[in-house]
Amino acid sequence: MRIAKSGGWAMAATFAAVMASSAALASDRHADYYYPKPGTTETYKARAERLPEASRRSRIAFVTHVMNEMIRKNPYPPPYAIFAKGAEAEKMIIVGLTGDSYDTLYRMRALLAVLTAVARATPLFKEERVEDYFTFLDLCKMLGFELLTVSDGKKFAHQIKIE
Question: Quick check: pTM over 0.70?
């Protein structure tokens, strides 16, 4: 009898875990629209705090500015698109637009390193004197982004929950 009870609890726990992971996947309504279902995920514990003035409007303005700068300054199409989604634009999505540029975790991390270098040159990081400490993911936290998805737009997608 004891075995049956513990087996029942194990089955119930397994069922609950499967349902929870299914619910998490179902809640990502952008998967299979802007990018494939993420194959890898991680959580980043930001060193920065969210700015008091961070809002839906400021997040949308940020991605609009970044994309406009790429388009304005370069004589070629941008290598990736950045946009904000979610009811409060709290989800940042970066999708590669050319070839196989961001098709591995290593290439995606290299892109984030490049974006960190760009973020460190901003007046915000310089004024706060954090240009040698904060990363692009810290900038995302400061702006109020809670989730970043990076994808090659074909087969690879990686999500980072920003806490």
Answer: yes
